[in-house]
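Margin note from the TA: students keep mixing up input and output lines. Inputs are the sequences; the output is the structure of the whole complex. Example:
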Amino acid sequence: MDILRFNTAGSVDDGKSTLIGRLLYDTQSIPQDKLEAIAASSRRKGLDFVDLSLLTDGLIAEREQGITIDVAHVYFSTPKRKYIIADSPGHVEYTRNMVTGASTAHVSVILIDARHGVVDQTYRHFFISTLLRIPKVLVCVNKMDLVDFSQDVFSNVVSDFYAFAEKIRFEGQIIDFIPVCGLHGDNIATPSQRMPWYEGRTLLQELENTEIEEKNTALPARFPVQYVVRPRTEAFHDYRGYAGRLASGTLRVGDKVTALPSGQQSVVRQIQKFDTDLPEAHAGDSVTVLLADDIDLSRGNMLVRHGEQPVEAKYLVAQVCWMAHEPLVAGKLYWLQHGNQTVKARVEGIEHVTLPGTLEQVAATQLKLNDIATVSLKLAQPVFADPFAANRANGGFILIDPASNNTAGAGFVQEAHESVPVQEFSI
Amino acid sequence: MSNFSKRKFPRQLEDEAIHIIREVAAQFERPALLFSGGKDSITLVRLAQKAFYPARIPFPLLHIDTGHNFPETLDFRDQLAAELHLDLIVRYVQDSINQGKAKEETGKYASRNALQTVTLLDAIEELKFDACIGGARRDEEKARAKERVFSVRDEFGQWDAKRQRPEVFGILNGKINLGENVRVFPISNWTELDVWNYIREEGIGIPSIYYAHERDIIERDGLIWPHSEFLHTSPDEVVQRRVVRFRTVGDMTCTAAVESLADDIDGIIDEILRAVISERGARIDDKRSEAAMEKRKQQGYF
């Protein structure tokens, strides 16, 4: 059984919580006592229907203010697969929340209120979906009942959305549109009788039919060493296993491998998952690798197949999404964590901030909360990162503010260089 | 929902959990695994065992003994610790009461569930733990649905929903300031059914009270309460003998039983699939208010 992770993004009052509640309700994922509890709450609020949005409104402050503060995780299953929904709130700190919720998503579900059509937030949501390289975007045009199920309204949304999306979508990114009514369940899990002009799939059918990309397994192998297992017991006296989660690619017993940064070479002698020997490990597997030779390899190092080395990057150009109230300042030092390696990094420069709504690039000397910018970073030690566009699992990093130890930014590698590129300039 | 029963456990959840547990061992100096004797913490022990095989689990288990535990749970705990050569540390709520740090509740709903927090925070300070691995899952409750895998707590153990660190790309930031510590939840993304399917597929042993057995009970507020010396009963509450089992294992004073004939894992899973009551619906401690869990978390609860 596989897992599909998807993110939901929408503006205030787009009906996102209701849509999620409906998806759970229609897949029989809500236990009776929870359903009764929200039915009772709905009655107390004077509603004459069961408000399914109450299922995901969690915190006290959220209930008081009728808003959502933080990313909530919601789970349901069908006979085919398990689903993990990251429900990102639409308004307060939306960029930060959406990046948090969607960084590993397979599908991004973007909600649009049919009455309002494409709004500035919609552009932002699609921009972030693209920044995160989410392979499939499902645009749900919600509240179709409030526009008389009009095909024209729907078509206008589609063309407005495309006009923007075509400028930034990446090759192979799938975009589909579904007219829905979350409140009544039209085209959520059941095809709507009220929109006969729509012949596409329901939201659930779209999710069920999403291929979870196997591309990651076909990429070069990236095995970040997480922990060295040394039992030091009689039975396993000389045992030295390199434990980690294979970020991308496939690693097989017998593969010639190079350890980074030492450059030493060896051969994969054994791959273990607990007490079982495996012939090969695939992207996502947590395994322990044993090598034919004793070489210099420890946490933060990386094992790759011979001839597939990534750049030993001491200089990165990256898109950064800033997630802290304290601004990012050029010249400042941060901790950069890539996988399980942490190095000191200095912000060399902010090339420009991109405004997601207009794609306009503006100069900046610092980054504020929710800004997305292209920055250059100089590293104290090399990291073994790939460009995010080529390898989603090995191209992301976080920036940690050394003063607070908080995660302050998410980074997406665009270029990895061994040293500062020589600047060409004219006199 | 019967078509769900043939469902297999999604193995990516195990890979994810093992990755998280290894990060704890690598990033922290003094981690511990919070062990309650319930199925979730038993699952954590299994995952930790796998994460470091063939080496021993490189951190101790910490059990906060309320004094109201089911004896079957304590027997199971000791047996598991002996079998896997675990380093087991036990701290007692009774000691916190004796020291005047915690006050026993009174009345018919008296429980030591909230008092655990006092003992837990004292133990963390005494033993200088910087990371505590717990078996909480996001599907259990609405406040938990919003908590991160690495949940940073201040020196009072408090959780602040508005100050949570973003967690992206599965990268776990374990850097903390002096006085802070981290609660770590490796099975955040598992549901109750995932845990049971895992226990079935792995053949993991669990305390006998999860299976149907005969027990003295009383009925109160539409729930079945296990009768014990710790439960304060009123004269009109009649003790009856019933065949029941527990879906979740907390204290004898705050865990309700369900009537059941399920005497093996398959029976339990079938029952869950048909169940109309969610798992925490059987936790009397959550029923105190709509936001009971969130309030307890803010005070440093597990």
